Hints:
Blueprint: E1 4-16, E2 20-39, E3 64-86, E4 89-102, H1 107-110, E5 126-127, E6 134-143, H2 158-164, E7 167-176, E8 180-181, E9 199-200, E10 220-221, E11 236-237, E12 241-253, E13 260-268, E14 299-300
Antiparallel strand pairs: 1-2, 2-3, 3-4, 4-5, 4-6, 6-7, 7-12, 8-11, 9-10, 12-13, 13-14
Amino acid sequence: PNQYASQWFFDLQREIPGDILLVGGYQGAKATHLYQGRNINNGGPHPTIPATQRRVRPTWQGVTLRDPGFNSSYNALVLKAEKRFSRGLTFIASHTWSHNLDQGNESLDEGLSGVANPYDFRNERGNSGLDRRHSFVGSFTWELPLGRGQSLGGGWGRGVDAVLGGWQLGGIVSLRTGFPFSVSYPGDPQNSGTANRGDRIGKGTLANPTIDRWFDEFAFVQSAPGVFGNNGRNILFGPGSRNFDFILGKRFDLPWEGHWLQFRFESFNFTNTPTFGQPNGGLRGQSTATINQADEPRRIQ
């Protein structure tokens, strides 16, 4: 069957004094028969005999069947406030509370490495790799009311106005929760030749995670020989991100009509807040649950 996608939404809008528009709404999407690939030469788990000796077609190694067998769904609550430019100020801020579910990334993205049981994807359905539960983004531009033609400093001379007038502030604030990730057990204790995630016997999260110990690895144990573990995919979440990009600008009017010069100071990640990468989900190793990557530091131009 051909893949298809459906999208639907509704929202309520209300304008309040100050040229501000408030919006609250719901957004949903569903994709069916997404393209997938799976190895149909796998013999499944076994207590003792290695998977390489139990291939369905012994003369071949991997036999990849590519068919439209994945599904995905997305549901979100969206809140937004927007102010059109007036009195020197404009802003837009939105918050999305969402949940994205699927059975795995498409083959071109991830291949077959993350699948535990290629004949049953029920245990593969879980948080999508791009699932973000909460995302807030706000941006603003504010022309300071200082200088000629403004509420403050209308009587300033040219010299004072050249120094204190014409300033503008702006910025973008981003607050997001982290992406999900899976944990994996070393080796092949279930003798399946596929993803080994083990059994989950606890929650796995910590009250105060750090980059040296982001999750509780002892909430996961080795599954019984010859049995698929009960642990699902993408069951834990990595660190979120907080970022503030800032701009300070000033406009200088030139003697020629219609000509002006602008000075701009810009800083990306102005507060120099680190955005950490995903923790190491491989269990029972020296770097298990640790984070050793971070995004760009503060940049100024």
